[in-house]
Specification:
Length: about 500
């Protein structure tokens, strides 16, 4: 990667067929830091010709190359090397991740570690892809094989650029697929770095291709391309619907991890100190820019005032600032456009009658004025019919909703188009397990805030997505089942020569 002399920012090319190459058009675009809105990288701007080149490279690598034909142990060893390189370069990768997406350095370090963990986990699963032998009623041997899907287009969001790429790449590679990764235009740098790490670790040319560029053009072209066998997307729900439309033309396999409006429910018998601290984490980490953020806090009326008072006090103590500083606890949101969108939700909430009890404004003091910094925001008295209770804001904004009965809160928690995640705070074991079953969410945590280890399946109900990432379940997304039947009958097969007698004779 050469440094552009005119601006002294790094230049990043596409990765196609194992090589760093410029876009066919020669066009580039700048990616900026949300903390300063100043450029931090110049990216090759992929277009339709680059999509065709990348799909052709991935197709050749799958149909003719060594990766799908390697032994699982050979693939596993290469994936372990990817994880090792990620760990070796953790400080530099984390710094670049923070500079590009604005999340605090502590979280970026955690994301690099989690990405390495993900590759290590699937390196282990690469050697454990087995089929089954099926008992048959007759002289037949029947068994199944698990085989890779083929060429996979993978489109990842801007809120967890490296980690979401790892979630997609690791299981796809473990199963023997080839792929084209399309990172978000706002945060493409670490995806290119990951592609280079894969090559350095020994992934053959054409197996991992990286296209940086506009999602409208590049993402849609990948989703509809006849040379792509599967498309995986993480992002907002409207785009997920569009990808399904485009993929339908060639009946692609599709997996989607989409939006959320996740409830966080606190009962009076919970450990309230722990619930306050966990609830702060659940909404304000990554400045609220998480699909699993617990954006609706349901407080039982008996502890509403006590809980909310302590929550607001601690929210006011969160250190918002330069995300590269270790002491900073919340950084900026991704862009001025997103900041404006979030604040428009705040204004609408006030207009609809919600009570602003914390935040609700930009932070403009000192150096922070150049970035997209928002104060941790809390609205009380939110009703189910308000936009703040129904729509994904994707920022550090919490809607507080009181409740009285279990039936009431379950009904309210389920009353959205989403069903990604939910949290319960209670020490009543029967209540905890009963409500975990009643909540319409793919991930439920009890007395614990949001967390997504690679060993556990991740995905949503309703319009929060299709399929499950992470865990062994993700291998189902990147493999297909082949059934094989073998005739063991010592007599030759002769359907027409041994025609059955007519009934009744």
């Amino acid at each position: 990667m050469a440094v552009a002399a005119s601006t002294q920012i790094e230049h990043y090319d596409l990765i196609i067929g194992g090589e760093n190459v410029p876009a066919a058009s020669g066009e580039t675009f700048e990616t900026v830091s949300p903390a300063t809105n100043q450029p931090v990288g110049r990216m090759a701007k992929a277009g339709l010709e680059d999509v065709a080149r990348a799909v052709a490279a991935a197709r050749t690598a799958f149909d003719e190359g060594p990766w799908p034909r390697m032994t699982p142990l050979e693939r596993s060893r290469i994936m372990h090397r990817i994880a090792a390189i990620l760990r070796e370069r953790l400080p530099d990768i984390a710094r670049i991740e923070t500079s590009n997406c604005g999340k605090i350095i502590v979280e970026s370090r955690g994301d690099v570690t989690a990405s390495a963990n993900c590759f290590e986990y699937y390196a282990g699963l690469a050697t454990q892809l087995w089929g089954e032998q099926i008992p048959m009623n007759g002289p037949l041997l029947d068994y199944t094989l698990r085989e890779p899907v083929g060429v996979c287009a993978q489109i990842v969001p801007w809120n967890f650029p490296l980690l979401m790429a790892a979630w997609k790449l690791a299981p796809a590679l473990a199963a023997g697929n080839t792929l084209i990764l399309k990172p978000a235009s706002a945060t493409p740098i670490t995806a290119v770095m990951l592609g280079e790490i894969c090559r350095e670790a020994g992934v053959p040319d054409g197996v991992v291709n990286i296209l940086t560029g506009p999602g409208k053009e590049v993402g849609e072209a990948l989703a509809g391309h006849p040379g792509v066998d599967k498309v995986a997307f993480t992002g907002e729900t409207a785009t997920g619907r569009r990808i399904m439309e485009l993929a339908a033309g060639t009946i692609k396999k599709v997996s989607l991890e989409l939006g959320g409006k996740s409830p966080n429910i606190v009962f009076p018998d919970a450990n309230l100190d722990e619930a306050v601290d966990g609830s702060l984490f659940a909404i304000f980490t990554n400045a609220g820019q998480r699909c699993t953020a617990r954006t609706r806090l349901f407080l039982h009326q008996d502890i509403h005032d006590q809980f909310l008072g302590e929550f607001v006090r601690k929210a006011g103590n969160i250190r918002v600032g330069d995300p590269l500083q270790h002491e900073t606890q919340m950084g900026p949101v991704i862009s001025p456009t997103q900041a404006h969108r979030i604040l428009s939700y705040c204004q609408r909430a006030e207009d609809e009658g919600a009570e602003l009890v914390a935040g609700g404004k930009r932070i403009t003091e000192g150096d922070l004025g150049a970035g997209n910094f928002l104060a941790p925001t809390v609205f009380d008295g939110v009703r189910q019919d308000m936009h703040l209770a129904q729509e994904e804001v994707f920022g550090p904004v919490l809607a507080v909703i009181p409740f009285v009965t279990e039936d009431e809160v379950v009904q309210a928690a389920n009353a959205t188009i989403y069903g990604l995640a939910a949290t319960l705070w209670t020490n009543d074991i029967k209540r905890a397990h009963t409500l975990a079953r009643r909540l319409q969410a793919g991930n439920v945590s009890i007395n614990y805030p949001t967390v997504n280890p690679p060993e556990a399946p991740f995905g949503g109900y309703k319009q929060s997505g299709i399929g499950r990432e992470l865990s062994r379940h993700a291998m189902d997304l990147y493999t297909q089942t082949k059934n094989v039947v073998v005739n063991l009958n010592p007599q030759p097969f002769d359907w027409y020569g041994r025609w059955p007698e007519a009934p009744g004779t």
